[in-house]
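INFO  loader      accepted 1 record
INFO  loader      residues=303
INFO  predictor   begin
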Amino acid sequence: MRMKLLENFWVATTKDAGTNWVKDKVPRLAAALAFYSMFSIAPLLLILVRLTGFFYGEATARDELREQLGEMTSPQTAETLMNLAENASQSGDSVWATVVGFGALFFGASGVFGQLQDSLNSIWGIKSKPEKGWLNMIKKRLLSFGMILVIGFLLLISLALSTVISSMTNTLSTQLSVPEVLLPAVNVTISFLAIAVLFGMIFKVLPDANVRTRDVAVGAAIASALFTIGKFFLAWYLGRESTTSAYGAAGAFVLVLLWVYYSSLILFLGAEFTHAYANRKGSPIEPSDHAVFVDTVELEQPA
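INFO  predictor   done
INFO  writer      dumping tokens
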């Protein structure tokens, strides 16, 4: 009986998430975020390289980021992204030009998080209270800067763990008799956990909402699992020559756009599941002190 109730709970929660997915027009939100990301992804990658480079050197940071992007997308797409980041680093030779260039990079990289915040607020049916324009912008940029630091921290952890695993590969396979075929599973697990933490931080911090950590963890874990599974199929699809040849010179741009669009769909699906799970558990998401609920009412034109 208990198993039946548990099964009904998850089926109902999944159904609620799917219904809200359609009602909130999630594919349109994902398309908007993907388009907006194209103007932010290069400075974001460059900032991540420089943050990580403080600890491991920029060359090592670039190689690690290129490798991880290649695993999530395809080697060709990863190379395109890294080339975009390198082109964005050409800010001049003087100290002043470097400072101004880095400020512009930060402003561009943080912009995508502002768009992401608005999309999550829309999915959860809330919005910020009217504030002074400049004050609201500063708050959003500072919050976005924090998210960039979180991503950089996760990249550092991933790099450190990958280094440890690589150095232990010979020991695990020879002295401990661990089959080498199991070693990639360790990397997949690390990737899953890192993405789950990132999604969880996004759900917890970015929206103008109060949501329980347990509810966030469920949605983030489901989104991370779907992303981890789907990235293998996406990498296969993006790696096919026919995918890029159909778009000619714009092929690399289309590959990046498809990857970001897919990632946005998964992220928003996790947000919908978090919302549905919280409602089913009797702990609905509430707006924060500086936000309010938004209720959409359909009105028919009188005859």
